[in-house]
Description:
By secondary structure, this protein is α+β, with helices and mostly antiparallel strands.
Amino acid sequence: ITLAVTACGGGSDGSASNDSAPNTSVTPISVSGGGVKGPLIGALVTAYRIDTSQSDFKGEVFDVGSTNNRAEIIDLNLEAGKFYILEIVADADTLDLTTGSAPVLKKLTTVMSPAILDSGSPIYATPMTTLAVE
């Protein structure tokens, strides 16, 4: 995952972050994007802080959102200047926007760097980003 984090931009000193709450003096950044294989409607979106002391690098849950009927991430707000692991998980009600059926892949994951997050660009979790993170 170090390679994936480096490839995403930004830098890190490699130390684990144990911050349990976002800095309330910082304006949160609303996240847009989605999970793509096809686009997932009604999926759960979870943003984890990066914790290098964990084998999967997933630290505490920072925020939880979902995807809407256009497969867009909604209700997810993150603190600027941080790395996150974003996980999009299908449940029994999740549909593939393209087929109208249950998705083939039930979980998609990606890493968000401060540069990508701060740019306001949509974030997409794909099978390729999932392979890189996992």
